[in-house]
Amino acid sequence: MFKEGEKISYPMHGAGYIEAIEDKTFLDEKKSYYVLKFSEGDIKVHVPVENAEKAGLRRIISRDEYNRVIESFKNTGDVEESTNWNRRNRENLEKMKSGDVFEIAEVIKSLLKRENRKNLSSSEKKMLGTSMQILVSELALASNKNDDEVKKIITRML
């Protein structure tokens, strides 16, 4: 169970905070919801407390995991990807939906490696931007840095 003010990560949205825990009644059934506030934009998401784990809600990574993710950007040569665009896109989307920072880092490395060889499609460019925003938001909260600092660190590692 999470507490108000706790730093969290939610798949496909990135990192943020538990802004509140609210009880709501729908069809005579009372349920508790986490109200999630994200670092990026003015988005708030309500996640039923009972489904939070199943939905992928988790605490942000530790400082040690932050360091391991940053270090992983040194090794861009070990990224494997399908040559089939449709399969590659599906695999990358699954990695992003997992909410795992190491998987999201793999998506970024894969797309950046591909971008260096040839132009990305518009959907791959969008995926690169989204995956970068999701990863950067969590790394920034985990390290108490701002998003721009984290982007610069990642860029230097590449």
How do the strands of the widest beta sheet line up side by side? 4-3-2-1-5
* General shape: globular
N- to C-terminal distance: 37 Å
User: For the record, what CATH class of the largest domain applies?
Assistant: Mainly Alpha
- Portion in helices: 40-55%
* CATH fold-level label of the largest domain: Methane Monooxygenase Hydroxylase, Chain G, domain 1
| Contiguous runs where pLDDT drops below 50 for at least 5 residues | none
- In total, the number of domains comes to 2
Tell me what the CATH architecture of the largest domain is: Up-down Bundle
Derived structural class? alpha+beta
Q: Assign the CATH superfamily of the largest domain.
A: CarD-like, C-terminal domain
What is the rounded Rg?
17 Å
In percent terms, what proportion of residues is strand?
15-25%
Q: Sketch the major β-sheet.
A: 5 strands, antiparallel
Q: Determine the mean pLDDT.
A: 90
Q: Number of helix segments?
A: 5
H/E series, N to C? EEEEEHHHHH
The tally of strands reads 5
